């Protein structure tokens, strides 16, 4: 059982979350519900939880202030937030789970499953979030690899390849791809970078790493690592327009 704290200044939000967790997430034991950050901070210091659901915008102490004061962050974090999309992207980049209010039942179940099975380097969590909050188009991202976070320069990403619920990051700096549990749509939204182009349902490419474009009927891209990637017919004209602007 995951000893769990719910922290949100809105009691309605913690009530709804508690009900959802009790009904759909039997691995979670709600041990504390806090509607002010100061009480939550004291409870965390006295009795460290395994998992914390944490709101961002709270009076007196916001979520980041709370984390700073209870460092080291030696528990798993799932943010519950009505934050703008830029902040949500930062959380997802860093292998931190998040739930956008109003909380969706299926997303909650998936987040708890990740919390159960994915050990997160505790000290790195908060540092990674703080780093990426400062840049809407981050120069580095952190990819969860087992019990570690692998920090990757976005400029070193050749392309991302989708395989169901997993994405392989092919990097210029290493021969083997890094595989993470994300959808390609999520990765595209998270990078939020005009240099990354969705050339095909299964491929997101870094335009800076294209070696050549083969203008066959279907279209094909050859990357700097000599990998040939398809271009969807519907994307061919858009690709040429984007390339012309580089």
Task: Please give a structural write-up.
It is elongated, with a radius of gyration of 20 Å. It contains eight helices and 15 strands. With 246 residues, the chain is of the alpha/beta class. A hairpin with a 5-residue loop joins strand 13 and strand 14. The strands form four sheets. Strands 2-1-3-4-5 form a five-stranded parallel beta sheet, sandwiched between helices. The protein has a five-stranded antiparallel beta sheet with strand order 10-9-8-12-11. The protein has helices at residues 11-24, 37-46, 63-69, 85-93, 105-117, 122-133, 184-191, 233-245, and strands at residues 2-7, 28-34, 51-55, 76-81, 97-100, 140-145, 148-153, 157-163, 166-171, 178-180, 196-200, 203-206, 210-214, 220-223, 228-230.
Q: What are the key terms here?
A:
alpha/beta, elongated, 5-stranded parallel β-sheet, 5-stranded antiparallel β-sheet, 15 strands, 8 helices, 246 residues
Task: Describe the structure concisely for a colleague.
The protein is an alpha/beta fold and 246 residues long. The chain has helices at 11-24, 37-46, 63-69, 85-93, 105-117, 122-133, 184-191, 233-245; strands spanning 2-7, 28-34, 51-55, 76-81, 97-100, 140-145, 148-153, 157-163, 166-171, 178-180, 196-200, 203-206, 210-214, 220-223, 228-230. A hairpin with a 2-residue loop joins strand 11 (196-200) and strand 12 (203-206).
């Amino acid at each position: 059982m995951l000893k769990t704290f719910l922290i949100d200044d809105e009691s309605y939000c913690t009530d709804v979350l508690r009900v959802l967790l009790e009904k759909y997430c039997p691995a979670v034991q709600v041990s504390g519900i806090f509607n002010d950050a100061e009480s939550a901070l004291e409870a965390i210091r006295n009795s460290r939880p395994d998992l914390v659901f944490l709101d961002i915008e709270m009076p007196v102490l916001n979520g980041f202030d709370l984390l700073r004061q209870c460092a080291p962050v030696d528990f798993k974090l799932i943010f519950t937030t009505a934050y703008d999309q830029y902040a949500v992207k930062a959380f997802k980049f860093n292998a931190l789970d998040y739930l956008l209010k109003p909380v969706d039942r299926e997303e909650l179940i998936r987040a708890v499953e990740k919390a159960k099975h994915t050990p997160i380097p505790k000290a790195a969590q908060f540092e990674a979030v703080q780093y990426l909050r400062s840049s809407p188009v981050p120069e580095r991202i952190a990819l969860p690899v087992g019990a570690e976070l692998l920090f990757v320069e976005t400029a070193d990403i050749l392309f991302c390849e989708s395989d169901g619920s997993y994405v392989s990051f092919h990097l210029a700096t290493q021969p083997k791809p890094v595989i993470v549990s994300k959808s390609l749509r999520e990765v595209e939204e998270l990078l939020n970078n005009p240099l990354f182009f969705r050339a095909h349902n299964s491929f997101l490419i870094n335009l800076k790493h294209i070696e050549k474009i083969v203008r066959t009927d279907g279209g094909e891209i050859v990357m700097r690592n000599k990998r040939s990637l398809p271009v969807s017919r519907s994307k061919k004209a858009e690709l040429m327009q984007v390339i012309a602007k580089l």
